[in-house]
Amino acid sequence: MKKVYTLAVLMGLSSLLFSCQDKLKPNYQFFPNMYESAGYETYSESSAFKNGKEGQLPAQGSIKRGFVPYEIPNTPAGYLASKSVTTSPLDSTAVDFEKAKELFEIYCAICHGEKGDGKGNLVKREKFLGVPSYADRDVSVGSVFHVETYGLNAMGSHANQLTKTERWQVAAYVMKLKSEL
């Protein structure tokens, strides 16, 4: 009899708690500041910082997570220094030539040609002139990476389109094309 009485009390309490809920009105909101935070206008004034601005610059010398700086500068002397880099930091198992070929055809072949002979579609249509064959150039894997990173002459940088690993892979593929010409 005690079990029946206990069960009836529990059923009665649960019906009191859940039967009067109005689904159109929200329940109590605990810690509302977690859901409705005070927003700040970008570049607005704020007394929280010394210079009085809300938007702050990153600390000097800081780099974003996962970014490894490229130490050779974007100067003519830096380009000459990059020619002395004859080995890729990627080991031979990390270079995926199929992926490198795909990236080369997407980003490079339009000007340099699929064989690296300097006869891409834009050169054939005379949109860009003077794109040399890789066979005619004194390049190393390091100088190709340097040019992909910073750009040279009419060629712009591809650092925003290709990751560092992908640029090294494309550089290795360019050296493979150069050896085949």
Strand and helix layout:
Elements: H1 2-19, H2 76-82, H3 97-107, H4 109-112, H5 121-124, H6 141-150, H7 164-180
Into which percent range does the helicity of residues fall? 25-40%
Q: How many DSSP H or I helices?
A: 7
Mean pLDDT: 85
Structural class: mainly alpha
Backbone CA Rg: 31 Å
Strand content: under 5%
What's the total number of strands?
0
The biggest sheet, with number of strands, parallel, antiparallel or mixed sense and barrel status, is:
none
Low-confidence stretches: none
Order of helical and strand elements: HHHHHHH
Q: Could you give the distance between the termini?
A: 96 Å
Based on Cα principal axes, name the global outline. Answer: elongated
Describe the protein's architecture and organization.
There is one protein chain. By secondary structure, the chain is an all-alpha fold. It is 39% helix and 0% strand. The protein has helices at 2-19, 76-82, 97-107, 109-112, 121-124, 141-150, 164-180.
Notable traits:
181 residues; mainly alpha; 7 helices; elongated
